[in-house]
Amino acid sequence: MIREPILVLAFMLAVVAFTRWLEQRYEPVKKISSAVVCTLLGITLANVGVIEHTGPVHQSVFTFAIPYAIVLVIMGTNLRELASAGRPLLIAYLAACFGSLVGGVVAGATMAGWVGPETWKLSGAFSAAFAGGGMNFAAVGQGLEIDTSTFAAAALADNLSTVPYLLLQVWLAGMLATMFLRRTRLGGAAAWEGEGAWEADVDEVGAEADEDAMRRRWTDADINITDMAILGALPLVALWLARIVNVRYPMVPDVLCLTTIALIVAQLPWVRKLRGAEMLSYFALHIFFIVLGAASELGMVFEAGLPIFGFMIAIIAVHVVIAYGVGWLARIDLPTVSIASQAAIGGPGSALAIGMAMKWHRLVAPAVIVGIFGYALGNYLGFACARIVLALVG
């Protein structure tokens, strides 16, 4: 077993490199993402005795990796870009986030007896994840101090939800097409965007190149020493400020302080010129998922697994009803509703994936924009949901 902290960290970095190699080489790994593979490898390696379940490196990662990832990814959120997403997509996305919040509250209030005492915390973590993505799950789950094995099982469920939900979206796009087209045509001028999305009358070569560049934004970057130094320092300053606020106002979670500080800093023009924030945040998230997986004992993960998977499915079911229902009532075209829902459930990366798969090229860039915004919004929704469920179930 590898116990020396320096070797443990070196080994984890090698695992990240290995999973990235797998994602670039094998299409199935690309679909579930290298981050998910890091979780699975973390669970496997710790339970077969290659690395420890916990240790100094693990504690350091829990303390710094998620705060770093939160600040860096939110620093890529320019609130002014939301206007370019368009009103229909913004409405659809906010409806999807609201559906995740309601789903968390409903599932938490009705399934607490089955899931257990951590239900209210899981409600918040899943609601946060289904408004932005896996990073929100990790941030809110850590902030609410979910039990380690429950956290690992729930994180695995969240990570494995993205691809099945994407396939469900494709099926729903076929099943609901006629109903939505009829509704949007009744909307007159508002329907042009939806019909245009179905036709995909754009230069596909150029659109696919833009989509590929957007994907590389999270995995490749042209970064210099100045940018790296500033990006390395800003999260530390934000973490320090958040802890000062938390000391004075202990009822305010560190994660929400970090989110707010990062949102404010992100609006500064010179910060938006920094390159590499998304890539570094994605890298930190890989390390965190290895540690998260390693912290779990496999028997306890399987024991907690079935109730948690059922709980997650219930939240997603409510999300689908509200997201698609509001979209239909508001006469928003089906591609816009679908890609907004995918951005909420799986984050901007999965919105990119469904946009490419369904050839909804003109919706991809706006969906990624609102998905990035969801990294900030999801943290607020997650803690709100957790508190509501706690008040309901006691």
Topology:
Blueprint: H1 5-25, H2 27-32, H3 34-47, H4 56-74, H5 82-85, H6 87-115, H7 119-129, H8 134-143, H9 148-175, H10 177-186, H11 192-199, H12 204-216, H13 225-248, H14 254-266, H15 269-272, H16 277-294, H17 298-329, H18 334-346, H19 348-358, H20 361-393
Helix pairs in contact: 1-3, 1-16, 3-9, 3-16, 4-8, 4-13, 4-14, 4-16, 6-7, 6-17, 6-18, 6-20, 7-8, 7-20, 8-9, 8-20, 9-17, 9-18, 9-19, 12-20, 13-14, 14-20, 17-18, 18-19, 18-20, 19-20
Task: Describe it.
- With 394 residues, the chain is mostly helical.
- It has helices at 5-25, 27-32, 34-47, 56-74, 82-85, 87-115, 119-129, 134-143, 148-175, 177-186, 192-199, 204-216, 225-248, 254-266, 269-272, 277-294, 298-329, 334-346, 348-358, 361-393.
- Helix 8 runs parallel beside helix 20.
- The chain is globular.
- Mean pLDDT is 82; it is low at 187-203.
Task: Describe the structure concisely for a colleague.
With 394 residues, this protein is mainly α. Helix content is 81%, strand content 0%.
